[in-house]
Amino acid sequence: MGSLHISLGIVIFLVVLALAFDFMNGFHDAANAIATVVSTRVLKPHTAVILAAVCNIVAIFIFELKVAATVGKGTIEPVTIDHVVIFGALVGAIAWNIITWYYGIPSSSSHALIGGLIGAALIKDGPQALISGGVLKTVAFIFISPLLGMALGSLIMIAVSWLFRRSTPGRVDKWSRRLQLVSASAYALGHGGNDAQKTIGIIWMLLIASGYTAADTHTPPLWVIISCYTAIGIGTAFGGWRIIKMMGQKITKLKPVGGFCAQTGGAITLFLATALGIPVSTTHTITGAIVGVGSVQKFSAVRWGIAGNIIWAWILTIPCSALIAACFWYLGSFIF
Question: What is the pLDDT of residues 179-190, one digit of tens each?
Fold first, then answer.
């Protein structure tokens, strides 16, 4: 790499575009951390959004940058990466996010970004541009993260039901409301820790490709880390109200105890994935956890038709964002 001919102006433009994606990621995925705490009326929407935004930014002090390393150095071969590939990937991801936000579909910003990278890299250099290990790991977790979230949400719900089996409904509700504040905060920390690092990885990739950062550096510049965590936090603060309604009420009706179990199961999944350096979908994870909790309470309580539509959105995210990114890579090759 080291393409020093890339002008500073182009690099600044792409950094701003990446931060715009990061902001949109927070805006688009705000529902993941707060849908359950809002739907159970433990917090008012605006209060919940502010809590989630603060936790997104605080995550900077908790997680190592393993996800950023996977995205920045573990998905696309270094010789393929240039400013046009980054441009195509970002526009592909942003376009898919706008489409799914407009229709209130809780798709994955993370997989839109990975799809964008794959699409732009494939049209430039073909299959050899992809680092199979990183791509396959990410694709595998499209299925693993919601299933793990579902399993943990179900198990925690069963455990809580057993522990409080002699308690009155009022006492269970009282404790669940308090615990939901903890679980919502933990999930927002996991969201910030995993998702902000994806944009850190993209900007790191760009800086290495353009020669502004050495290829053998083990961590990205500090300003990249701070700006990405801040951007996702601000995006979350603006919230994604269309998707909050879908996540909080349309899949299944949740009580505070169910909200706590779903968020805790989802948070554990995110903490584990981030520690392993795997870029997962916070949307997939919390949806799986909500379905798991709902199915334990009553199998018919889950609106499986709506859940099925969401799954279709998951399946389509990578190919659709890849196709859009490929188109914009082609357009970008004439612009830049």
Answer: 989 999 999 999
